[in-house]
Every structure is written in C-alpha cells, then in structure tokens.
Amino acid sequence: MQILPVYLDHILYPTLREEDYLTEVHHVNGEGQDAGVVYSEMQGVEHSSANILYFELAKKLYPDSGYNVETGGYLQNLRNSTSIAKVRDYHKKYYRPENLVLTITGRIDEQELFETLRKTEEKVLRKRAAQPAESFQRPWQTPLAKINLTEDLIFEIEYPSDDETTGSVVAAWRLSEYISENIEMLEAYKLIMKVSHCHTSQSF
Predict the structure, then answer these.
(1) How far apart are CA 161 and CA 53, in angstroms?
(2) pLDDT in tens, 1-46
(3) Do residues 63 and 6 touch, judged by C-beta distance below 8 A?
(4) Taking the model in full, what pTM does it have?
C-alpha cells in the first residue's frame, strides 16, 4: 500500500529525461549498433512468425484501427523518427488521470486505501490549479470500420524461417456483436480457442 503513491507518480509524472530515453528506448552504442531496452525487446519479436501473422491478420480484421498497430513500436520508426519530444507529447496527451483506471485486488482496508490515494489526488489537483489541462477526447471511442462478414477471407503470408518444411495456419473471427454481451457465446469461443491451441501437424 505504501508504494502505491510512488507507482502512480511514476505513471502520471515521470521525469522523462533525455538520458532515460537513450537507455530505455533507443541509441547507437559504441560499436555502431542499435541498442536500447525497447529496441532490443522489439528486435526479438518483430520478425517472428507469430508476430508477422498476427499483425497481417489484424490488418484484415481491423482496418484503419489501432488494433492492428504494434504497441511496442516498429524498429524502423524507433531508429528514424521516435524522439524524447514525441514520447513527452504522447505522455502528456494520454497519461492523465481522466484516462486512468486503477484496479486494486485483495483484502484491503478501504479507508486506508482512500487515505493512501489522497496524496496522489491532491498532487493532481495542485498541478491542475497551476496549469489547467488541455481538452481531452478519450481514445478508442470510434466504431470499428465495417468489413464483409459474409465471406471467408483466405490469404497467404510469407515470413523468414530457418525451416522451410513447416508453416503456420491461423484462423480468426470478427463477430457482428460484442461477444462480452453474450456470455454463452463467449464461453463457446473460449472452448474453441482452447481446443485450437492443441499442437497438431499435418502434411499438405
């Protein structure tokens, strides 16, 4: 509980220093190689078959949507266009109290929790009094672009692999309704996905 205000302060009011960006996001090291925590993480996944298949599929299912964008960033963008200024602008735009949901689980004393959060609330109010926040429009509120749900969409994607004798088959659905509003259908799809995760092999 004691660390909660510190955690929230790191989310809402990080220092975002230039040297932190170089270490955590991207820099060129003394050997002329691209480096950085985020860059290294994305190196490990960007060219993986699972990552390539997922985002190619997402482009078909969710055109013109953030659902088909890699949240960790693309290596080319991290090298050429990402900067500490862009990180600061993005944080200022989206990392704000009205766009934050705090989920706390476990056996806790509610009064103690509210007293702990009071420090963060007071800091937010002080900062807002000193500098009013810019107008805010919550993201992810626009409807998804409609796609043709009456026909199957089958496509092939090539990706780098050390073994050309194997491949992957990916299947997905986009429903015409919010599946969370139909519990029976949600459970049925959970079962389908659980079964589909079983490892099978087939020669073609």
Answers:
(1) 13
(2) 788 999 999 999 999 999 999 999 999 999 999 999 999 999 888 8
(3) no
(4) 0.77
Contact call for residues 49 and 168 (beta carbons, < 8 A): yes
Residue 176: name the closest of 140, 141, 150, 194 by CA.
150
Locus of tokens 């389908």: 192
Long-range contacts from 54-61, C-beta under 8 angstroms, 24+ separation: 54/170, 56/155, 56/157, 57/170, 57/172, 60/147, 60/153, 60/155, 61/147, 61/172, 61/174
**How far is Cα 94 from Cα 193, in angstroms, rounded to an integer?**
33
What is the percent of the chain with per-residue pLDDT over 70, rounded to a whole number?
A: 95
CA dihedral sign, ordered 38, 40, 43, 48: negative
